[in-house]
Protein backbone atom coordinates (compact mmCIF):
# COMPACT_ATOMS: atom_id res chain seq x y z
CA UNK A 1 0.00 0.00 0.00
CA UNK A 2 1.43 3.36 -1.04
CA UNK A 3 1.32 6.37 1.24
CA UNK A 4 0.37 9.72 -0.27
CA UNK A 5 2.75 12.61 0.02
CA UNK A 6 1.58 15.90 1.40
CA UNK A 7 2.41 18.74 -0.98
CA UNK A 8 2.91 21.93 1.05
CA UNK A 9 3.59 24.23 -1.91
CA UNK A 10 -0.03 25.51 -2.09
CA UNK A 11 0.02 26.09 1.67
CA UNK A 12 3.18 28.21 1.38
CA UNK A 13 1.59 30.18 -1.48
CA UNK A 14 -1.51 30.94 0.60
CA UNK A 15 0.55 31.98 3.63
CA UNK A 16 2.70 34.32 1.53
CA UNK A 17 -0.38 35.85 -0.10
CA UNK A 18 -1.94 36.44 3.32
CA UNK A 19 1.28 38.01 4.54
CA UNK A 20 1.39 40.36 1.55
CA UNK A 21 -2.31 41.21 2.00
CA UNK A 22 -1.88 42.15 5.67
CA UNK A 23 1.29 44.12 4.99
CA UNK A 24 -0.46 46.19 2.32
CA UNK A 25 -3.69 46.79 4.21
CA UNK A 26 -2.21 47.54 7.61
CA UNK A 27 -1.55 51.15 8.38
CA UNK A 28 1.41 51.92 10.54
CA UNK A 29 0.96 55.38 12.03
CA UNK A 30 4.29 56.82 13.01
CA UNK A 31 5.58 60.33 13.32
CA UNK A 32 8.65 60.70 11.24
CA UNK A 33 11.48 62.92 12.30
CA UNK A 34 12.16 64.29 15.75
CA UNK A 35 11.16 62.20 18.75
CA UNK A 36 9.46 64.30 21.42
CA UNK A 37 7.58 63.34 24.55
CA UNK A 38 4.33 65.33 24.51
CA UNK A 39 2.66 66.11 27.82
CA UNK A 40 -0.60 64.35 28.65
CA UNK A 41 -3.93 66.12 28.89
CA UNK A 42 -7.54 65.12 29.44
CA UNK A 43 -8.59 67.91 27.06
CA UNK A 44 -6.43 66.74 24.13
CA UNK A 45 -8.41 66.49 20.89
CA UNK A 46 -7.21 65.50 17.42
CA UNK A 47 -6.89 68.40 14.96
CA UNK A 48 -8.58 68.10 11.60
CA UNK A 49 -5.89 70.07 9.80
CA UNK A 50 -2.47 71.38 10.60
CA UNK A 51 -1.01 74.37 8.81
CA UNK A 52 2.38 74.92 10.39
CA UNK A 53 3.99 72.72 13.03
CA UNK A 54 6.80 74.03 15.18
CA UNK A 55 8.57 71.65 17.56
CA UNK A 56 10.52 72.54 20.70
CA UNK A 57 12.82 69.67 21.63
CA UNK A 58 13.96 68.63 25.10
CA UNK A 59 17.15 70.63 24.45
CA UNK A 60 15.11 73.76 23.55
CA UNK A 61 15.96 73.50 19.85
CA UNK A 62 13.37 74.74 17.35
CA UNK A 63 12.26 72.64 14.37
CA UNK A 64 9.88 73.74 11.63
CA UNK A 65 8.82 70.94 9.27
CA UNK A 66 11.58 68.67 10.67
CA UNK A 67 14.27 71.26 9.93
CA UNK A 68 16.39 72.77 12.70
CA UNK A 69 15.97 76.55 12.70
CA UNK A 70 17.53 79.41 14.66
CA UNK A 71 15.49 82.14 16.34
CA UNK A 72 16.32 84.54 13.48
CA UNK A 73 15.14 82.22 10.72
CA UNK A 74 12.19 81.13 12.89
CA UNK A 75 10.76 84.65 12.60
CA UNK A 76 11.00 84.50 8.79
CA UNK A 77 9.48 81.00 8.58
CA UNK A 78 6.58 81.97 10.87
CA UNK A 79 5.89 85.05 8.75
CA UNK A 80 5.93 83.05 5.50
CA UNK A 81 3.69 80.37 7.04
CA UNK A 82 1.20 83.04 8.07
CA UNK A 83 1.07 84.44 4.54
CA UNK A 84 0.60 81.03 2.89
CA UNK A 85 -2.94 80.40 4.16
CA UNK A 86 -6.16 82.34 4.64
CA UNK A 87 -6.97 80.86 8.06
CA UNK A 88 -3.69 79.47 9.42
CA UNK A 89 -3.23 77.48 12.62
CA UNK A 90 0.14 77.23 14.36
CA UNK A 91 0.62 73.89 16.13
CA UNK A 92 3.19 74.00 18.95
CA UNK A 93 4.65 70.62 19.87
CA UNK A 94 6.84 71.09 22.91
CA UNK A 95 8.58 68.25 24.72
CA UNK A 96 7.41 67.91 28.31
CA UNK A 97 10.99 68.60 29.44
CA UNK A 98 11.41 71.75 27.33
CA UNK A 99 11.78 74.97 29.27
CA UNK A 100 8.55 76.86 29.75
CA UNK A 101 10.26 80.16 28.95
CA UNK A 102 11.20 78.99 25.46
CA UNK A 103 7.60 78.03 24.69
CA UNK A 104 6.31 81.37 26.00
CA UNK A 105 8.94 83.24 23.97
CA UNK A 106 7.89 81.31 20.86
CA UNK A 107 4.20 82.07 21.44
CA UNK A 108 5.00 85.73 22.00
CA UNK A 109 7.01 85.85 18.76
CA UNK A 110 4.15 84.22 16.83
CA UNK A 111 1.62 86.68 18.26
CA UNK A 112 3.92 89.58 17.42
CA UNK A 113 4.15 88.38 13.80
CA UNK A 114 0.36 88.13 13.55
CA UNK A 115 -0.63 84.54 14.31
CA UNK A 116 -4.13 84.61 15.79
CA UNK A 117 -4.79 80.86 16.07
CA UNK A 118 -2.35 78.66 17.98
CA UNK A 119 -2.74 75.19 19.44
CA UNK A 120 -0.49 73.35 21.87
CA UNK A 121 -0.12 69.66 21.06
CA UNK A 122 -0.67 67.09 23.81
CA UNK A 123 -1.45 63.42 23.92
CA UNK A 124 -4.53 62.01 25.62
CA UNK A 125 -3.97 60.58 29.08
CA UNK A 126 -3.61 56.81 29.10
CA UNK A 127 -6.81 55.14 30.23
CA UNK A 128 -8.91 58.29 29.77
CA UNK A 129 -11.83 58.05 27.39
CA UNK A 130 -12.82 61.10 25.32
CA UNK A 131 -16.40 62.30 25.71
Question: How is this structure best described in words?
Answer:
It is a single chain. The model has no long low-confidence stretch (mean pLDDT 80). The protein is 34% helix and 18% strand. It has helices at residues 9-25, 71-83, 100-113; strands at 40-41, 52-56, 62-64, 67-69, 90-94, 118-120, 123-124. It has a five-stranded mixed β-sheet with strand order 4-3-2-5-6, covered by helices on one side. A two-stranded parallel ribbon has the order 1-7. The chain is α/β, with parallel strands linked by helices and 131 residues long. It is elongated.
Number of helices: 3
Give the CATH class of the domain at 40-124: Alpha Beta
CATH topology label of the domain at 40-124: Nucleotidyltransferase, domain 5
Strand order of the largest sheet: 4-3-2-5-6
Sheet with the most strands, sense and barrel status: 5 strands, mixed
Amino acid sequence: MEKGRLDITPLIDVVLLLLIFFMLTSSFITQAGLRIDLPESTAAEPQERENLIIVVSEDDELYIEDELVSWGSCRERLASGLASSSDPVLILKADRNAHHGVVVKLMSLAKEIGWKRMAIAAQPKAGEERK
